[in-house]
Write a structure and sequence with these properties.
27 strands, Glutamine Phosphoribosylpyrophosphate, subunit 1, domain 1, Rossmann fold, 3 domains, binds 6-O-phosphono-alpha-D-glucopyranose, seven-stranded antiparallel beta sheet, eight-stranded antiparallel beta sheet, alpha/beta, about 600 residues
């Protein structure tokens, strides 16, 4: 977790670092800090607990702080609480400062060894051992690059670091293993960051560092070395991100902006993937045909919201005759598997950097899963680089911690994959044509669902004093209920659970009273009658229901039952449509609760720790 940014320039780098931090806040936001070196070899470090605004206040009190080289960090605490002393940058000696994103697994051994060498520790973090190690090598005569190269040899774990030193005011050294790091190329200046979006206001051109790379930025010269110390010429990648795509515009929150962007995001994800009445299979990559032919089953691996997309897809795949398992990445990676024959591993991830998903993929490859495909929203991410096939979701940058458009575009990509694999099983060309036509309708149907916002805003009022909520769904809509509950709990802090509606009688009915709203989605599918029966079970026990129902179900308001009609859609795309009102509901409840919608407490968007 955590976001890092660094810069070497001819001008004051403080505004560049602050802008980068703002754009990286999604990676963690419990404390924040910067260190800058000026041309006169003076180093200044300012750190604050809380979000970037706290750092800006601290900088206002220290207006003389400026520098031509600097590093900055926004933290998501792992080792040590979010205090000022645990905030990065960490320093060793009078002039050496370092920021780190990652976890150093052997930090206790290093700490003990450093203590015996006389180092005094200022923080509880695992990072401080890195800066001490670099300091030790500098003291022994190494220059900054050599000191960093020697240091990372003794580190175990996953990390990305940026290091500056007051003795070399034009130099910034970075290194990565496991955690992401990119180098931004400017005119007479150069930058480092956890991702491209952090630097989008200063450059479009980037080197994406490979695992094990070290970069030495000396003035504007950028020298990249691989893990063996060999100089490497990495390809320049030009980011397609625009500054506007990572800015709020007219919206109050990124989450709301991203909910409203879903129709376009879905249209972009479909573009170039379907033609006429069929799927363009080559959009999965040149090897897709061969790999799909050789696939007998699918294993989906993901975390959080992406995992819920996987759960929906299981229904879709199996309906078309493709056996499918879905597992949370942190569980998958740490158990013994009976590896199925010719099983395609499909990872789902917005960021492409979730460490559990990456580790699960690596484990799957090691134990003999046949091939891998990732459905991902971040080009150049680690998952994209490490998978045989890639289907990018073209959702655009998602900044709000609670995932919205990444989820619905993942569902679209999964439908395309289901078609590709279904072709080799039960899917006829007529059926494919029907599924493709339904996908084409999606952007317009999403727009219609978004129009429910005013009524959802009113319903949200009912949650102002509630502490618990229950979400119900059946079939493909059980994962949608799970996603609705996750959205509500992560941004409004209301405890929410989701159940398959048929499971109510096995426990959750005991919780029903007038104080716990029960939210259900009711598409017009073959499970509708069973769902209606479950709804009656809740009403009979005094529960209050809010039901988002396909208009053709002809459900209407009754005592303790409020029905919100959703435009009718075919069951194949219904999970995507019914997600929208649940997103809007949690957003408006969070607004009423007054929480920090885009940066809910204790969470981060890109989870790069185990
Ligand atoms: C975090 C985010 C979620 C996301 C999950 C998986 O928990 O807050 O929104 O669903 O990570 O992230 P990924 O980038 O792998 O989809």
């Amino acid at each position: 977790m955590c976001g890092i940014v660094g810069a070497v320039a001819q001008r004051n780098v403080l505004p560049i670092l602050l802008d980068g931090l703002r754009r990286l806040e999604y990676r963690g936001y419990d404390s924040v800090g910067i260190a800058v070196v000026d041309a006169g070899k003076q180093i200044s470090r300012i750190r604050s607990v809380g979000k970037i605004i706290e750092l800006e206040k601290a900088l206002d009190e220290n207006p003389e702080t400026r520098g031509i080289t600097g590093i900055a960090h926004t933290r998501w605490a792992t080792h040590g609480p979010p205090t000022k002393s645990n905030a990065h940058p960490h320093m060793s000696g009078p002039g050496l400062a370092l920021v780190c994103n990652g976890i150093i697994e052997n930090h206790e051994d290093l700490r003990l060894a450093q203590k015996t060498r006389g180092f005094k520790f200022q923080s509880d973090t695992d990072t401080e051992v890195i800066v001490n190690e670099v300091y030790q090598h500098l003291n022994n005569g190494a220059d900054l690059l050599e000191a960093v190269q020697a240091t990372i040899k003794v580190l175990e774990g996953a990390f990305a670091i940026g290091v500056i030193c007051s003795d070399e005011p034009h130099r910034l050294v970075g290194a990565r293993r496991g955690s992401p790091l990119v180098v931004g190329i400017g005119e007479g200046e150069a930058f480092l960051a956890s991702d491209m979006s952090a630097l989008i206001s200063v450059t479009r051109d980037f080197y994406i560092l490979d695992d094990g790379d070290v970069v030495d930025i000396n003035n504007a010269n950028i020298c990249i070395m691989d893990s063996l110390g060999q100089i490497q010429q990495r390809e320049i990648k030009t980011s397609k991100l625009t500054a506007e795509s990572v800015e709020l515009g007219e919206h109050r929150h990124f989450m709301l902006k991203e909910i409203h962007e879903q129709s376009t995001a879905i249209a972009n994800t479909l573009e170039g993937r379907i033609s006429g009445k069929s799927l363009l299979e080559e959009s999965f990559g040149t090897e897709a045909n061969r790999i799909f032919d050789a696939t007998l089953s699918v294993q989906i691996i993901a975390c959080g919201t992406s995992y819920h997309a996987g759960l929906v897809a299981k229904y879709w795949f199996e309906e078309l005759g493709v056996p499918c398992q879905v597992e949370i990445a942190s569980e998958f990676r740490s158990r013994v598997h009976a590896v199925p024959d010719k099983c395609l591993v499909v990872t789902l991830s917005q960021s492409g950097e979730t460490i559990d998903t990456l580790s699960a993929l690596s484990e799957a490859k090691k134990i003999g899963f046949a091939n891998s495909l990732t459905i991902c929203n971040a080009p150049e991410s680690s998952l994209v680089r490490e998978s045989d096939l890639v289907m990018m979701t073209h959702a655009g940058p998602e900044i709000g911690v609670a995932s919205t458009k990444a989820f619905t575009t993942q569902l679209v990509a999964l439908r395309l994959l289901a078609i590709a694999l279904g072709r080799r099983r039960h899917l006829s060309s007529e059926h494919e044509a029907k599924l493709v036509a339904e996908l084409r309708e999606l952007p317009a149907k999403v727009e219609e669902a978004i129009k429910l916002e005013p009524i959802i805003k009113e319903i949200a009022e009912q949650f102002a004093d509630k502490h618990h909520a229950l979400f119900l769904g059946r079939g493909t809509h059980y994962p949608i209920a799970l996603e609705g509950a996750l959205k509500l709990k992560e941004i409004s802090y209301i405890h929410a659970e989701a159940y398959p509606a048929g499971e109510l009688k096995h426990g959750p009915l005991a919780l029903i009273d007038s104080e716990m709203p029960v939210i259900s989605v009711a598409p017009n599918d073959r499970l509708l009658d069973k769902l209606k029966a479950n709804i009656e079970e809740v009403r009979a026990r005094g529960g209050k229901l809010i039901v988002f129902a396909d208009v053709e179900t002809e459900m209407s308001d009754q005592q303790n039952l409020q029905v919100i009609n959703v435009a009718s859609v075919d069951s194949s795309i219904a999970p995507i449509i019914f997600t929208i009102p649940l997103q809007l509901l949690s957003y408006h409840v969070a607004l009423i609760k007054g929480t920090d919608v885009d940066k809910p407490r204790n969470l981060a968007k890109s989870v790069t720790v185990e």
